[in-house]
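Workshop exercise sheet. Pairs work together: one partner reads the sequence aloud, the other fills in the structure field after running the prediction. Swap roles for the next sheet.
Pair: D.N. / O.F.
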Amino acid sequence: MEATAQATATLERTLAEKPSKRKKSIEKGKPGEKERPIEKEKRVFMTGNEAVAWAALAADADIMYGYPITPQNEIMHYWTRLAPRYGKRFLQTEDEISAGFTTCGGVLSGKRAFTATAGPGNILMQESMSMAEMLRLPTVLVVQQRGGPSTARVIIWQKETILTCYGGNGEGFRIVYSTSSHQDLFDYTIKAFNTAWKYRFPTFVLGDGYQAKMRESLYIYDPAERGIEMEKTYPFLGQEGMPGVDRDPAHLRNTYNTEEELLAVISDYAAEYNRIAPELIEYDAVDTDDAELVLLAHGVVARAALAAVRTLRSQGVKAGYFRPITIRPFPAEQLRQIARSAREFVVAESAQGQLLKLVQEAIYGETIPIDPYLMPGQGITAEELVEYVREKINGQRKFH
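Structure field:
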């Protein structure tokens, strides 16, 4: 960890010392002048990956570490194109393992650092993110999900849901925002930095290949213009002053010698995580007060679910919509309350039951029937969901 932080500091010194074209491009927006990449608010038309890059700039991120993998590549491309204008940095590593650990190193040195990946890269980053959990490092990781298992395909999939929430050999002490639009990608990328640095848990933005590649309109903005104050960053290592005299010593551990030590640490982390969970939980619910059937979905599939509910309502069907925005921590109590008044749930996802597992765990003990609409590796449309619900109502389909 010391070595990683030192490597990051060395990179900073090297880049600062090189009298190259890079230096001239940086001078266009000197860090000391605090030139903002976005003035006020603008409506734009761009890809989701481009929105993430702009959001990281708006959040005043210092450096991105990364390794190419579809469908997140353009986050790196746009970042490397835009970042030099504002004195920001980028380091392409030799693989995703290195990208994850160098992100941890950047954070240890006090930088607002982030990375992005997908699919197999997400798997390779779980070791470093597990270390970030143990050290309570405010890392930010954007995941644009792709098909699986293994390489599979590069666009739609939601099978990194459980991996992102509970990956690594830990307890899932992390925060995961599931986005459904380009506006979400922009908003929650900014929010992820603040959440990570405020609570000191690794924070993830979970998108997918559809959101990454398609273009749609959204508003980009300077967070300050909306009253959003970015959390201050600080170095965990290499602080000024004598440890134990001028300041408390930095004591970061990810290994413990006795069972009792580890039990005490994990118990404290669990208590802290559970304490802050109510502050973190976000969800969206529409027409659930009188709903007999509630469609549950997250991510890009939630768009189809919401459109389906609106169509069904127009046809006289008492349908409702529930979307967990934070899938870790999960809005369990909010969903449990809906389960006690509705007659049935339909869980729609582009995976073989990953959201379904989270729902079942969240409302364990409730008796409401749950019907899974599972389309692994394939997108789901509003029309398909409307047809599915209509057939259920007409008795042409039964619960699985």
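Discussion prompt: Confidence is low (pLDDT under 50) at residues 14-32. What would you look at next?
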